[in-house]
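Input record, target 12 of the design panel.
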C-alpha cells in the first residue's frame, strides 16, 4: 500500500467517523492527531465550533516528558483527562481521526481513561 492510498484511506475513515458522533458541551469529542514524532489531543464542542481543551507533546510544559513515543502518549492522555475532570467533563466521544486504535492512539486513550474520562 503506497503513501497516497494510506492518506486517502485515512481520510475516508475520518469522514465516516464524523457522521457517527458530534461533540456537545456536555459530551465533547476527543479528537486525536498523530504525526511521526508528536501527538495532539483536543476536546471539541461541535455544536458551537469551540475547542474546550487542548494538550500536545509540543507544548512547553510537556517538552520535559521523556520515554518512548507510546509512554509520552499515555502521559498526554492522562494530562488531558485530569484537565477535563477539573473542568467538569467526564464523558467524551472518542474520535481517533482515521488512525488505527493501536500503539500511541491506544496509549493516549488508556491514559485518558485512567484519569477519569469515560468513553
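The sequence produced for target 12 reads:
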Amino acid at each position: 500500500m503506497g503513501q497516497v492510498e494510506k492518506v486517502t484511506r485515512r481520510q475516508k475513515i475520518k469522514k465516516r467517523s464524523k457522521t457517527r458522533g458530534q461533540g456537545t458541551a456536555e459530551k465533547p469529542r476527543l479528537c486525536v492527531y498523530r504525526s511521526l514524532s508528536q501527538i495532539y489531543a483536543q476536546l471539541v464542542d461541535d455544536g458551537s465550533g469551540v475547542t474546550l481543551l487542548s494538550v500536545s507533546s509540543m507544548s512547553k510544559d510537556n517538552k520535559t516528558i521523556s520515554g518512548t513515543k507510546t509512554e509520552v502518549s499515555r502521559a498526554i492522555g492522562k494530562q488531558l483527562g485530569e484537565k477535563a475532570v477539573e473542568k467538569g467533563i467526564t464523558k467524551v466521544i472518542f474520535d481517533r481521526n482515521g488512525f488505527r486504535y493501536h500503539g500511541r492512539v491506544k496509549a493516549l486513550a488508556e491514559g485518558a481513561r485512567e484519569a477519569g474520562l469515560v468513553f
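The chain has a mean pLDDT of 92.
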